[in-house]
Structure of ABC transporter ATP-binding protein:
Amino acid sequence: MNLEVADLRLSFGGLLAIDGLSFGVGENEIVSVIGPNGAGKTSAFNCVTGFYRPTAGRILLDGQDVSGRRPEQIAAMGVARTFQNLRLFGELSVLDNVRAGTHLWSRQRAIDALLHTPRFRRTENEVTDEAHRWLDFVGLRGDRAGPARALPYGEQRRVEIARALARRPSLLLLDEPAAGLNHSEKAEMTDLIRRIRELGISIALIEHDMGLVMEVSERVVVLNFGREIADGPPEQVRRDPQVIEAYLGRDAEDSEIAEIIGDGHG
Ligand SMILES: Nc1ncnc2c1ncn2[C@@H]1O[C@H](COP(=O)(O)OP(=O)(O)OP(=O)(O)O)[C@@H](O)[C@H]1O
């Protein structure tokens, strides 16, 4: 799926959280949106998924203007997302969390469910099989029958991605998928993101881990205080003086910043 964000603006009262953001994610591409905390990245995702109504600008999915549509309408068009702070159903089993992702395409008829007809059972089995396949795909190692909250953090991130994939999306928005992951988990996440793209899914990625961003992205869009300051291939963006300054102007102690500057001058 093709995403086109054109001159997006979003204000909360007097605060201009997004001040003219334009970028595109082509068919089967990975595009990252980076920028310091509070730059407006998550707000931009919330506009794309219909959680926020943009103040101005347009959002196109495969050429169709969806600005101002409701979240469920946009989800039904094939857009799925994960959240910066995990939003699993903690008490529900791991498997049921992923099964919940299938509801868009597996909608059961109430009468079949009530009477437990063969048709109902057949669909239930398909849903369960598919949930297992997605958990295999994301490489989940933990217990699938136990509650999601019992899994280690890194495993919960995989479950959240599996749930999003179970919606069979054409566009996937990942909000900081590597946050809180250790070094080897990050490497696995990098590989997983690539494999998702190989399924033919377009990906928009918010991520603070510059190593991951530089490795997987076709293009990188940089936001600073709601304004877009750069958009280009990773090698170009990491050497952009405005980008380096935006990061330097904040907290130079931050490792991601040290990394971007290090790479930029290296
Ligand atoms: N619902 C809201 N009401 C008011 N202000 C908001 C709301 N959501 C976000 N903001 C503000 O909009 C600005 C952009 O926030 P946003 O969360 O989009 O940034 P971000 O780039 O995703 O940051 P982070 O990397 O910390 O997640 C911030 O100043 C934030 O405080």
Notes: The pocket of adenosine-5'-triphosphate is lined by residues 12, 15, 17, 35, 37-43, 84 (CB under 6 Å). The first strand starts at residue 3 and ends at 12.
